[in-house]
Amino acid sequence: MSKNENSKKEGWQASIPDESLDPGQHKRRKAGKSDKGGTPSPVVWHTLHADEVHQRLETNPKGLSAEQADERLQKHGPNQLAQIKRRSAWMRLAMQFHNILLYVMMGAALITAFLGHWVDTGVLLFAVVINAVIGFIQEGKAENALEAIRNMLSPHATVIRGGQTTEVDAAHLVPGDVVVLGSGDRVPADVRLFHARELRVEEAALTGESLPVEKSTDAQPADAPLGDRFGMAYSGTMVVHGQGRGVVIHTGKHTEIGRINQMLVDVRSQSTPLVRQIDKFGQMLAVAILLVCALTFALGTFWRGNAPADMFMMVVALAASAIPEGLPAILTVTLALGVQRMARQNAIIRRLPAVEALGSVTVICSDKTGTLTRNEMTVQRIVSANHVYEVSGVGYAPRGEITHDGHIVDLETDHALALAVRAGVLCNDAHLYREDKAWKVMGDPTEGALLVLGAKAGFSQDLGEQAWPRLDVLPFESQHRFMATYHRNTDDKPWIFVKGAPEVILDMCEREYANSDLAPVNVDQWRRMATDTAAVGLRVLALACKQAAPEGDGLGFADTRSGFFMLGLVGIIDPPREEAALAVAQCHEAGIAVKMITGDHAETARAIGAQLGIGVGKPAVTGAEVAMMDDATLRSVVMNVDVFARASPEHKLRLVKALQGAGQVVSMTGDGVNDAPALKRADVGVAMGMKGTEAAKQASDMVLADDNFATIAIAVRQGRAVYDNLKKFVLFMLPTNGGEALVVIAAILFELALPLTAAQVLWINLVTSSALGMALAFEPAESGIMKRPPRPPGEKLLNGFFVWRVIMVSVLMMAGALGLFLWEYEHGTSLETARTMAVNAVVMCEMLYLINSRHIYDSVMNREGLFGNRYVLLAIAACVPLQLAFTYLPWMNTVFGSAPLQPIDWLKVLGAGLLVFFVSEIEKFVIRHTGLRKRLLGA
Ligand code: ATP
């Protein structure tokens, strides 16, 4: 099934108004002119050279000091755009009344007032108001909860302060800060670039131009339109390639996007397909109820000859009993509670429809590194042309030795090894540092592992860079699978180092460094060694170098094509997460296939997959093989393969499409900017919260705050639970209204005394729908929830089974309440007492049926079933004093026409409740033990 495009559009995605898509607007607005009412900014930044920008902002490429940043933050305020104006409280309250079910009730109130039935008018209006107030409060809570979740996704920025690279909340950026931009980042403020390396930025948010713009550090003429100011990067635009550095010139509302005054992240849709389905059902129900009311009124008045005023009161009672007023409020609450619960467990929902889609996911495609594995990398093996070395020590602490055949190796004499270690340290963008006695890595953990290796060999990053300063870099991009740096050594000789996937690096090499000599590269031998290293689950990187300067101005791809000599391979261990193995097993049990899609070597992927229970005994397929298959072949292969290695983001997109083509509901994880299309296409796109780029997060439906695969399994479980709770609530609500309506209809049809007055019906609805039904929103996931197969997507809520259950319980409730009423009334009990018993019988049925409703199919006749949800018990306990008040308080007797009951009467009332309870349990038993469920579901 492909994703519901509409729900995507309505989703929590960035929304930029049409006016922002008008590039002309920016052309018309001359740079540097003050914005309307804003602060005047006479400096036309894009015309200035970088040095001048530094000077004017009193900063330098090493950034501001922490004190300066604090001071400026006080002065300029946080780097935030004005919040979207929330609907005012009054507006929200008014909107609560905008509901067809409540319109019907208000109409009835008006007519009862006209007829002078003030008590009924009062109760009707009270019911309308109380429902609106409950809806208002609950919706407010739900909005706050979602707001809090949205704040958890606040963007971060990499800045250089006091010469140190750190991550800060983007809101804390100030003019003069030096920011580092990498592919996948959202530009956090308006920035004048002073360094750009293959930097391409997609500026559609501002200019409407979807093709990325190549950035440089050049100054532009003052009248250059926004899209042509190549030396600038603007807040809210997206880096799609390369690296850059720049000085922040404007923050918050003074940025270009701030001037347009738009929020970038807009959580709007509060609806899901199921909620819309139920909303529509509510409307149909209202129309049906009105028709039945009109028909009953006509029959009663014209056929039976009753007084129109009496008939009208009966019809009001009927309408009041049948309308499930509490429905909209409780649906919102159930969803919001579910989303909150997921957020507490690290799964942050960005688009509400994902909650439901999670419940029907049939395939989870996951990255390997960091999601299934711990992303704590340690080099364990080094392979040179002549030797295989072992490296001891675990984690990032630089404690351990490099040994060969059990002897510690002397790097002074082993030049090939020393150069390989140096290559790993120099061709590296990470930083190793110590904090609170623990060693940590800032940047890519793979590179961190190489720094730790260097430190173990006595080769520190700082000293290395001082002696061999870096002049240029080609950053790592997963589609190229390598990184290159250009240095000059102490003798001022040029060197280019590369590191990356072995097959990519081997392609660049002509020779290898063996025994202090250069020999022709033995490609087969290296390949074999790479495969052997990968087969034990190690991640393999190759290191190579050449003594040459770049051909052009800076380092380019042309400089990395040939002429290198191979130095060695490193094998890096990245242990699987223990909880991931359990989560994979859980998914399998829940009928969900788990596929690993990784950029890593096929052998490494297979070995790690086997440790996790993914793809055991099945072949692994590589990205190159996927590229060779046509769509039809891929569709036929995709279900039988669980490990896809050396896969690039385009392969991910094809795999999602193939799986969807094979009828699967797909969840796909991703972190890079290039993963965005696959995340968008997947039914549930999942981005990594820690290592994921802003681009991936924006394209996703859900963000994993801890990057952990196990969290996806938890989210699926919660998604199933939320859906269950919505169903349970509807299954509780409809028969309770249905039962009351049947009591009234039967009375009208058989010309009986009305067992429930309109006011009494409304009382029941208030007590039951507001107090009782709400408790089901707190229902925890059922224990067997991950043992069921996924829910078929597009499954209709009101299927045969639902209709059956609603009718059955409605009839039971009607039988209990009406039966009791008639019995008592026939045997001389007063009308008031008999009605009071009927009201109490209905409420008792609902209280006990609430317990039944905790499980749709499973029995509740056990400890967990009866006592497992304390909100259910509290709701029931809260109803008891209300019913006692209704029965015994004299003023209640006056308002509602109720009367005090005797103890024996209560036993009869309890009997009616137990009838519903036990018959419902018997029905579940029969359904569980026969094929009835399947037949009712039409499956
Ligand atoms: P995932 O499993 O999450 O897809 P991955 O780390 O296995 O992630 P990539 O990050 O795309 O996939 O890496 C693919 C290959 O590129 C790795 O197997 C490795 O050989 C090489 N590689 C990874 N990181 C670097 C790096 N920082 N510098 C150079 N090469 C790298």
UniProtKB/TrEMBL annotation:
Residues 44-117 form the Cation-transporting P-type ATPase N-terminal domain. InterPro entries: ATPase_P-typ_cation-transptr_C, ATPase_P-typ_cation-transptr_N, ATPase_P-typ_cyto_dom_N, ATPase_P-typ_P_site, ATPase_P-typ_TM_dom_sf, ATPase_P-typ_transduc_dom_A_sf, ATPase_P-type_domA, HAD-like_sf. Residues 1-11 have a biased composition (Basic and acidic residues). PROSITE patterns: ATPASE_E1_E2. The chain crosses the membrane at residues 93-115, 121-137, 284-305, 311-337, 729-750, 762-781, 802-822, 834-851, 871-889, 909-927. One of its GO terms (molecular function) is P-type ion transporter activity. It holds the Pfam family Cation_ATPase_N. This is Carbonate dehydratase.
